[in-house]
Specification:
Length: 152
């Protein structure tokens, strides 16, 4: 589990760096039909650690909808702060898990069943996926490359 936490720290750092690259002038413009804007993607990433932990605790579809409805932010600064807060909650959750708890299974509302340790891996992969999306979207709005290393 320590290796997952180590990777999570790196992913957190690079996502925060990417949030710092967001230009609020263009961040609400949709990129293409059916795709998230930079704003929508950042908002999703902000709540991802908390929301995915809720899913790992078998939250219902209605509970997830209610969570997203009552959690709305408007600025990238707010999103960055909330993302850091949710990541810290994730670290605390991981730290408190016993070996027995890591092996406990839970099922999402759509039927995916994982151990708690596998859910942590899912959260890690989910963050990596959206980090790459954000990097690509930001690169499309820049004349020069972003100098953030996404891999160690």
């Amino acid at each position: 589990m320590q290796s997952l936490v180590k990777q999570l720290h790196f992913i957190e750092k690079t996502i925060v760096q990417l949030f710092d690259e967001v230009n609020e002038q263009t961040w609400k413009e949709p990129e293409a039909k059916g795709l998230r804007s930079v704003f929508e993607l950042c908002h999703h990433m902000t709540y991802l650690p908390k929301a995915d932990l809720m899913l790992a605790s078998s939250a219902s579809h209605q509970e997830m909808d209610a969570f997203y409805q009552r959690n709305r932010l408007e600025t990238i600064c707010e999103m960055k702060q909330m993302f850091i807060y949710h990541i810290k909650q994730l670290y605390a959750h991981i730290e408190c898990m016993s070996e027995c708890e890591k092996q406990r299974e839970s099922t999402s509302y759509w039927g995916a069943t994982y151990t708690q340790q596998e859910w942590i891996l899912e959260i890690l992969m989910h963050l990596i996926h959206h980090r790459a999306q954000l990097y690509q979207l930001l690169m499309q709005h820049r004349e020069k490359p972003i100098s953030i290393c996404l891999f160690q």
